Amino acid sequence: xxxxxxxxxxxxxxxxxxxxxxxxxxxxxxxxxxxxxxxxxxxxxxxxxxxxxxxxxxxxxxxxxxxxxxxxxxxxxxxxxxxxxxxxxxxxxxxxxxxxxxxxxxxxxxxxxxxxxxxxxxxxxxxxxxxxxxxxxxxxxxxxxxxxxxxxxxxxxxxxxxxxxxxxxxxxxxxxxxxxxxxxxxxxxxxxxxxxxxxxxxxxxxxxxxxxxxxxxxxxxxxxxxxxxxxxxxxxxxxxxxxxxxxxxxxxxxxxxxxxxxxxxxxxxxxxxxxxxxxxxxxxxxxxxxxxxxxxxxxxxxxxxxxxxxxxxxxxxxxxxxxxxxxxxxxxxxxxxxxxxxxxxxx
Length: 347
Description:
The chain is of the alpha/beta class and 347 residues long. The chain has helices at residues 60-66, 81-88, 104-114, 132-144, 158-167, 184-188, 194-207, 221-229, 273-280, 302-320, 328-331, and strands at 14-16, 33-36, 43-46, 49-51, 72-75, 96-100, 121-125, 149-155, 171-174, 211-215, 234-237, 251-256, 259-268, 293-297, 333-336, 344-346. Helices cover 31% and strands 22% of the residues. The strands form 4 sheets. Strands 4-5-6-7-8-9-10-11 form an 8-stranded parallel beta barrel, surrounded by 6 helices. The longest helix has 19 residues, at 302-320. The two termini are 30 Å apart.
């Protein structure tokens, strides 16, 4: 048994300290980035926000709506091969990750789709990214798809970030138990505060010319700003993008003036009873559900939420004098709040 005594922080534990700035307007900042990937040499330019590969959020419709913002989507893995082939024929597929697990069926379907259309970005997603089998799958996918950008996770420590990049991942997905409908921390006691996980994994990944994606823990636009300040190259969102027209959750209606109007939408973790029953006939007898099902308010088109996120990020950049998004980590100083409110923490 070992106890680490260094502070480990979540987004709620810090604020970003303002600094003198010559920026006169939010319109003066650039929230796009151009990133080059270590294993392919390919470059991508856009707004580095990714809709999560949850089946209610990682949808074709979400990809179409986020494309004008330059943002990305990790499609959920339950679309059939024919539907994926038709989708990947579209130009906007350049901003889309094909998501898989680590089963042979997942790998065979990926190969079948890639035999018919180009798939340039792959997300290998598991709840526990610390198994040897996961590393072996990342290596296999890299060997069979040398031209694809690969994102893999989830992990929360620097040594595993390094292992995944050396195994073939270009982007490491960071976050265990931090999602709003994930109950892993409650059920297992396993996890890591998200802000510290991003800082530590970014330090490790960037040393190998890899990138990190912060996945989970964001509930307001300010959390997205903090994730970028901590060194995240990408930020993945689930709950903040749930409840929109582009989602595929079951909608709850109410009567208003004699007509039905949407008021809420179902949102659930991919390890919840709901998801397990939907796709696998129930929770296997050797495991427990590590997710929950909730009703989120109906939010209309996702465009409004995206404008809030980009607007909040632009405003943060004017507060710290960052003209471009890539400058944000260098301009960020975190101040711890609460019991240790006077502590200053530089990125």
